[in-house]
Specification:
With about 400 residues, the protein is an alpha/beta fold. It is built from 15 helices and 15 strands.
Length: about 400
């Protein structure tokens, strides 16, 4: 973590007791049609910071968003989340049906030491996404201290993630601290060999990450549907596989740059292909990188799996972001699941960049076997691109 960012671990009970602590978390959890939470991992990830604050007598006011509402609606209310949180902590949890209005302020004033108040969805307020200074001031007026613990939204310059930090003494929560510790340290000071596995569907979404890692990692493995843009750029026939024609020159330029880099770039050497994109389509393995005109590549083949698992076997640090095939369909999940199993069996420091990779690991039941799984898919991706995250930089410029 940056030396200019201060963690809540530096705060004493004397500094916290009775203080109103405004905490930004990521409670954007999936729900079913009955508004029952189907995965509470994001809520549980915030518990260390929340428990630390309540145990030290703070009056904890929690902010979060849920979904992308265009206007206030019961469908996107955080009320069910408040009920769920109440079952996970040992202190009273209250819910404010507004965010910065009179009722929210009244509930803040009534909040006891060591108690929690969850504000209604911040995205019900237009000023949130606009990062409106007045809305940021209104939020800040509810607290004495601001704690940023929502890594999943740290790449958004919103009022509750960045704007409010300009008006309050600001600190990183334990989750933010952990994310930065693993992601930043892995890239800057890795144990080597350092292997990065970058998958996904489109070159346009991952090229910046690939470029940023070039020269920093020892082995860079490229997989997923974006493989076919790279292969086509090299002159291979890729059939009807997904290709981004406007990225062919960028892909070729990256591969040429890689030749003069210390990083070894690995592309698939065989493919599981179909002629129809559907779950029960008949598939065959194509050895090599020349696909027939009607072929669609949906997964890496056995030779590529062996290549990838071999690199993992000898690695000391492995960073994985993005699946290597259409893992949601069982027939095309072998490559992605093989990576997950290889990481689970590895002695290396294993860091998973959230999103689909985390979903694949969860589907395999191997979540507990990873060193660290990021809670922020988009945020971790932008961090690995070398971008400044507004929710993090706000902590650097305003703290005590």
């Amino acid at each position: 973590m940056s030396a200019s960012i201060v963690s809540i671990s530096s705060l004493s009970r004397e500094q916290l007791s009775g203080k109103r602590v405004l905490v930004r978390v990521d409670f954007n959890v999936p729900m079913d049609s009955n508004q029952a939470i189907t995965d509470d991992s994001r809520i549980r990830a915030a518990l260390p910071s929340i428990n630390f604050l309540t145990q030290n007598g703070a009056r904890v006011i929690i902010m979060s968003h849920l979904g992308q509402p265009k206007s206030p609606s019961p469908e996107f209310s955080l009320r069910p989340v408040a009920k769920w949180l109440a079952d996970l902590v040992s202190v009273p949890v209250h819910f404010a049906p507004d965010t910065v209005g009179p009722l929210a302020r009244q509930l803040v004033d009534q909040l006891g030491a060591g108690e929690i108040l969850l504000l209604e969805n911040v995205r019900f307020c237009p000023g949130e996404i606009l990062n409106d200074p007045q809305f940021s001031r209104d939020l800040a007026s509810l607290g004495d201290i601001f704690v940023q613990d929502a890594f999943g939204t740290a790449h958004r310059a919103h009022a509750s993630t960045a704007g409010v930090a300009a008006f309050l003494p600001s600190y990183a929560g334990f989750l933010i601290e952990k994310e930065l510790q693993f992601l930043d340290h892995a890239v800057r000071h890795p144990k080597r060999p350092f292997v990065a596995i970058i998958g996904g569907s489109k070159v346009s979404g991952k090229l910046a990450v690939l470029r940023h890692l070039l020269g920093k990692v020892d082995v860079l493995i490229v997989g997923g549907a974006m493989t076919y843009t790279f292969l086509k750029a090299q002159g291979h026939s890729v059939g009807k596989s997904l290709v981004e024609p406007d990225r062919l020159e960028d892909a070729l330029r990256f591969l040429n740059d890689a030749k003069s880099s210390a990083t070894k770039v690995v592309l698939p050497v065989d493919h599981v292909v179909v002629t129809e994109f559907k779950a029960d389509a008949y598939s065959v393995v194509v050895d090599g990188n020349e696909l027939d005109a009607d072929h669609i590549g949906l997964d890496i083949g056995p030779k590529t799996i062996s290549l990838v698992t071999h690199e993992i076997q000898f690695a000391q640090t492995v960073l994985w972001n993005g699946p290597l095939g259409v893992f949601e369909m069982d027939a095309f999940s072998k490559g992605t699941f093989a990576v997950a199993e290889a990481l689970a069996n590895s002695d290396a420091l294993t860091i998973v960049g959230g999103g689909d990779s985390a979903a694949a690991i969860a589907k395999c039941g191997l979540t507990a076997d990873m060193t660290h799984i990021s809670t922020g898919g988009g945020a971790s991706l932008e961090f690995l691109e070398g971008k400044v995250l507004p929710g993090i930089s706000a902590l650097e410029r305003v703290h005590v």
